[in-house]
Amino acid sequence: MPAPFADLDPRLAADSVPVADLALCQVRLMNDATYPWVLLVPRREGAVEIVDLAPEDRATLMDEIALVSGVLRAMTRCDKLNVAALGNMVPQLHVHVIARFAGDPAWPGPVWGKAPAQPYAAASRDGLVSALAARLSPARPPAG
């Protein structure tokens, strides 16, 4: 299993829970039941932008985005996937993959600032984490 983050941004840690470790990224579920929403956080110190990654890491990131996007789409049967690496609030490189539905609280606009986060109930969150982790095999859920 890849090494854990030395310094996961505190806001990412507070707003999400670990799901699985892929070759480059840790996959985390945002604690907002309004939208099925995961983050991919590359385990590369100092990476702020995708261009900060080595070419082979950029290719791996794209493969991991495609993997997670496919899993999320299959699980949710969403109308659209939003994929973004903004980093305006949190400079540590992370990629959002959000399942969107016509009629969700922010549709058709972006999700940021449209509705307050609605934390998952523990059982619902844990079930979703387990289902995502199982579908991201051979990745395993991270410890802790």
Major β-sheet annotation: 5 strands, antiparallel
Number of strands: 5
CATH architecture label name: 2-Layer Sandwich
Rg for CA atoms: 14 Å
**Fraction of residues in helix:** 25-40%
Strand content: 15-25%
Essential attributes:
single chain; 144 residues; alpha+beta; HIT family, subunit A; five-stranded antiparallel beta sheet; 20% strand; globular
Describe this structure in words.
With 144 residues, the chain is an alpha+beta fold. It has one domain (10-135): HIT-like (HIT family, subunit A), CATH 3.30.428. It is built from 3 helices and 5 strands, in the order H-E-E-E-H-E-E-H. The protein has helices at 10-15, 55-76, 122-135, and strands spanning 16-21, 25-30, 37-42, 80-84, 95-100. The chain has a 5-stranded antiparallel beta sheet with strand order 1-2-3-5-4. A hairpin with a 6-residue loop joins strand 2 (25-30) and strand 3 (37-42). The longest helix is centred in the middle third of the chain and has 22 residues, at 55-76.
